[in-house]
Design a protein that fits this description.
Blueprint (H helix, E strand, L loop, with lengths): L1 E5 L4 H11 L5 E5 L9 H11 L3 E4 L6 H6 L1 H22 L2 E7 L22 H16 L4 E6 L2 E2 L6 H11 L3 E4 L3 E2 L2 E2 H14 L4 E4 L6 E2 H11 L7 E4 L32 H10 L8
Parallel strand pairs: 1-2, 1-3, 3-4, 4-5, 5-10, 6-9, 7-12
Antiparallel strand pairs: 8-11
Length: about 290
């Protein structure tokens, strides 16, 4: 199989490349800016035409949630137009496309996990732009796409909340973290492996929720990080979202359901706590990263 990964230097893209490179039987190409610009049709056509992939995994995205509120048009170019351009080229090439999406396509007002077929209702510019990407991929590749929604992503590569809390443990006596936003911390390496299982099994096209199982709050996650570092979790203090007003609204509840994995005969991803334990034990917080 010939696999193209866009956004290959991000958290998820980096893990996908590492896992793909460790497997035999696949030709793998990972590209990021400036080597590919998913908002430029000529750039995408040149890459896909030259590499001729069987599968494209699009990890490239505008992820600056608050900045999207100030410039939704710019975010839409990356999160909506970019997937459209890739999907058009995949259709020409006969390639499958995995489009990575987000919990932000939901309003965050639920009290039970969002099913894969729950009606989206984004409350932020970021969520609207990511939903636009989902919709156009489904329209252009109805039989050869997977939309994989994820949330609260962290990994060895790049910045993330887990690393921020680890720095805070070293530098501050206490840290205040919101305890009224509930979700699923997701280890990017677990998600990369799950996406590869999906593309290898190749069930019917559709939407899957790629998050670690279980649920917690940002406060609970921060306490877990402190505990796993051998620090006193009581140094993490609970606070509310009202104390941290940001340009983009954050979902108060963004737990995603995993029922559709049964259709693919694939187990859902493991619970978030052992995933976090493994991530930290295997070098997530190494200074070199």
């Amino acid at each position: 199989m010939r696999v193209l990964v866009t956004g290959s230097r991000g958290q998820l893209g980096s893990d996908l490349i590492e896992l793909l490179d460790a497997r035999s039987g696949s030709a793998v190409l990972g590209l990021d800016l400036p080597d590919i610009d998913i908002t430029d049709p000529q750039s995408v056509e040149l890459v896909l035409g030259g590499f001729d992939p069987d599968l494209v995994i699009n990890c490239a995205a505008w992820t600056a949630v608050d900045a999207a509120e100030q410039d939704e048009a710019a975010a839409l170019r990356v999160n909506g137009l970019g997937p459209e351009i890739i999907a058009l080229e995949c259709r020409k090439a006969g390639a499958w496309l995995v489009q990575v999406s987000t919990d932000y396509v939901f309003d965050g007002h639920a009290s039970t996990p969002y099913a894969e077929d729950a009606a989206p209702d984004p409350a932020s510019a970021y969520g609207r732009t990511k939903l636009a990407g989902e919709l156009v991929v489904r329209e252009l590749l109805p039989e050869s796409h997977y939309v994989v929604r994820t949330a609260w992503l962290y990994g060895r590569h790049g910045k993330n909340f887990v690393k921020t809390m680890a720095r805070a443990e070293k530098e501050r006596e206490t840290v205040s973290v919101v305890d009224d936003q509930c979700g699923q911390p997701t280890y990017s390496r677990d998600l990369a492996a799950q996406i590869l299982r999906l593309t290898e099994r190749r069930p019917r096209a559709g939407t899957y929720h790629g998050t670690n199982s279980g649920q917690t709050t940002w406060f609970g996650l921060a306490q877990a990080v402190f505990e796993l570092l051998g620090a006193d979790p009581e140094r993490v203090l609970p606070t509310t979202s009202a104390e941290y007003v940001l340009p983009a609204p954050r979902p108060s509840y963004s737990v995603l359901g995993h029922a559709r994995w049964a259709d693919a005969d694939i187990a859902p991803m493991r619970d978030w706590r052992p995933a976090l334990e493994d991530a930290i034990a295997t070098g997530l917080l190494d200074e070199a990263n």
